[in-house]
């Protein structure tokens, strides 16, 4: 088993009968999911995706990734939210947060369209100068402002550099199967397209072409990633909380939430997990944060954040719990050198492997935080691999859906995201928003 839940450090926070009390709600949530009778049931395509994915498209993704690897030094991936975070999380987790600086035989991968920053766009264009470029634009709706603006810029760049014909060979579009405007535009322009399935929402889409194409371009084995997810899909079917780690995690979250633990911190000890934290925050934040409810998902990377947020976690407002991702076998080892002068007094560490020190630091921190009144859930991942990460992704997705149903929300919509968009369109003068614009302008104070 690549992923296991360790609940040993929860014993002083959750009594055995509390699991029994929440079990019927978990069973009900499972029923809503499996029988597709709950809210948002049109977006359950991710549930059996690890086995029931489009095999023909999967082969096309692998071929296209090989073509991109051969034809460019830079792949610009344009997308935001669920059309951005998963791919970047997996690439950084499995290759490196410094992927673009590595000596490698795959293209650099830059992410665009996830901000409205002219400076960020300018930096990116400078990085692309003199390089052969391909673009993968990813947008289910095709109308999201940030990626749409970036796509205009990079499409113009490619057409100027390679001509319309040449650009056609270098632009790859991942979008809605048939309905979206981007699909129609791509068909007319002759771009190769990949599908975001209708029944898979953005934040659940990392194992579709949305994530898989950029991930494959980075040289990651996407078959193994899917195999890991398929193993999780088989593993987490029982409604017995003793037998199903994934459902137990969903249960624990809700038990703690009801005790006033309103913030969950996903804690990692590896800098390569930083973007995985970001992906997880979107998954849980957008799925559960609605109707005045939801655990606020936060994240840290230790030791970095032990020297910033560590004080608050140990000693601040007791509204937190932690979920610690503990990775058994990372790829490298490093022996701590001896210092004859022992100026830092650390010679007791000489000859020890850095990983061993990290593992001890993890346990030491868990014990300290538990003593400080912070419930700690441990997710043990056996190794840093495609298979294990595939399992973890599915684990989090399934737990999120079950947890959301137990909380009493629709985990598959995101009505709150529209509010800023409407205001922005009104203030920017989009036709149809005139009266709203007048109202908003009256409230603006600068
Ligand atoms: O999870 C979601 O649904 C969102 O985060 C979307 O992925 C995000 O808003 C981008 O949407 P689109 O892919 O339509 O551009």
Written description of the protein model:
There is one protein chain. This protein is α/β, with parallel strands linked by helices and about 450 residues long. The chain has 15 helices and 10 strands. Strands 1-10-9-7-8 form a 5-stranded mixed sheet, with helices on both faces. The chain has a 5-stranded parallel sheet with strand order 3-2-4-5-6, sandwiched between helices. 5-phosphoarabinonic acid binds next to loops. The site of 5-phosphoarabinonic acid has 15 residues, from loops.
Radius of gyration: 23 Å
Cofactors, ions, other ligands? 5-phosphoarabinonic acid
N-to-C CA distance = 56 Å
Percent strand: 5-15%
H/E topology pattern: EHHEHEHEHEHEHHHEHEHEHEHHH
Structural class label: alpha/beta
| Mean pLDDT score | 96
Q: Provide the spatial order of strands within the biggest beta sheet.
A: 1-10-9-7-8
Shape: globular
**How many distinct helices?**
15
- Percent of residues in helices comes to 40-55%
Oligomer: single chain
Count of strand segments: 10
Summarize the structure.
With 446 residues, the chain is α/β, with parallel strands linked by helices. The protein is 47% helix and 14% strand. The strands form 2 sheets. A 5-stranded mixed β-sheet has the order 1-10-9-7-8, sandwiched between helices.
């Amino acid at each position: 088993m690549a992923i296991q839940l360790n609940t040993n450090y929860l014993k002083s926070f959750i009594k055995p009968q509390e699991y029994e009390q929440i079990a019927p709600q978990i069973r009900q949530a499972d029923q809503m999911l499996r029988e597709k009778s709950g809210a948002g049931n049109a977006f359950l395509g991710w549930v059996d995706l690890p086995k029931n994915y489009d095999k023909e498209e999967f082969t096309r993704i692998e071929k296209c990734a090989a073509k991109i690897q051969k034809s460019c030094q830079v792949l610009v991936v344009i997308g935001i939210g669920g059309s951005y975070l998963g791919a970047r999380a997996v690439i950084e987790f499995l290759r490196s947060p410094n992927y673009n600086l590595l000596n490698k035989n795959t293209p650099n991968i830059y992410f665009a369209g996830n901000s409205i920053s002219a400076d960020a766009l300018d930096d990116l264009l400078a990085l692309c100068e003199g390089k052969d470029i391909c673009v993968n634009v990813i947008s289910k709706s095709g109308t999201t402002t940030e990626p749409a603006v970036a796509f205009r810029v990079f499409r113009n760049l490619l057409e100027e550099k390679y001509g319309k014909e040449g650009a056609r060979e270098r632009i790859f579009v991942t979008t809605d199967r048939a309905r979206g405007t981007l699909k129609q535009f791509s068909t007319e322009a002759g771009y190769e397209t990949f599908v975001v399935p209708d029944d898979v929402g953005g934040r659940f889409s990392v194992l579709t072409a949305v994530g898989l194409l950029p991930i494959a371009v980075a040289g990651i084995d996407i078959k193994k990633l899917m195999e890991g997810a398929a193993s999780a899909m088989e593993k987490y079917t029982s409604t017995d909380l003793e037998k199903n780690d994934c459902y137990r995690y969903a249960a624990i979250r809700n038990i703690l939430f009801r005790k006033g633990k309103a913030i969950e911190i996903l804690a990692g000890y590896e800098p390569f997990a930083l973007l995985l934290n970001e992906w997880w925050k979107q998954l849980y934040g957008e799925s559960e944060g609605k109707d005045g409810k939801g655990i606020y998902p936060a994240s840290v990377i230790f030791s970095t954040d032990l020297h910033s947020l560590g004080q608050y976690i140990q000693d601040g407002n007791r509204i937190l719990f932690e979920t610690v991702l503990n990775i058994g076998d990372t790829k490298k080892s490093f022996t701590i050198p001896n210092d004859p002068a022992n100026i830092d007094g650390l010679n007791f560490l000489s000859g020890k492997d850095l990983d061993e020190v990290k593992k001890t630091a993890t346990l030491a921190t868990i014990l300290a935080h538990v003593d400080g009144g912070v419930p700690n859930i441990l997710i043990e991942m056996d190794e840093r691999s495609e298979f294990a990460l595939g399992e973890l992704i599915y684990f989090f997705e399934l737990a999120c859906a079950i947890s959301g149903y137990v909380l009493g929300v629709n985990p598959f919509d995101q009505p709150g995201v529209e509010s800023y968009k409407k205001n922005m369109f009104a203030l920017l003068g989009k036709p149809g928003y005139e009266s709203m614009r007048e109202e908003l302008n009256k409230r603006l104070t600068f």
